[in-house]
Specification:
This protein has 89 residues and is mostly helical. The chain has one domain. It is 85% helix and 0% strand. It has seven helices and no strands. The longest helix has 14 residues. It starts with a helix and ends with a helix.
């Protein structure tokens, strides 16, 4: 996943009108969270949770970006981001 894709997703999620749209899609979000792709991503996050927590506490943005990139490099992470982006349209 390219850096521009990550930045685009972040911009989409941070926009006020987009956030309002996202909150109106609770059911879709719940369904998305129950998908195999989301479950696989959560397994990765759980596996790296101590590293992610430490990076957050230390304000280590580089490590957080690395963890996110590791997730986005997986097929499941890529598909999940695409579904989130599609949902934001």
């Amino acid at each position: 996943m390219a850096k521009n894709d990550i930045e685009k997703m972040g911009s989409n999620l941070m926009g006020a009108s987009k956030a309002e749209r996202l909150s109106s899609k609770k059911d879709e979000i719940k369904k998305l969270a129950d998908t195999q792709d989301a479950q696989k991503v959560m397994e990765i996050v759980d596996k790296d949770s101590s590293l992610i927590t430490k990076a957050m506490k230390d304000g280590d943005v580089s490590s957080l970006k690395g963890a996110l990139n590791n997730i986005l490099k997986t097929e499941e992470g890529t598909r999940l981001v695409k579904k989130i982006n599609d949902m934001m349209k």
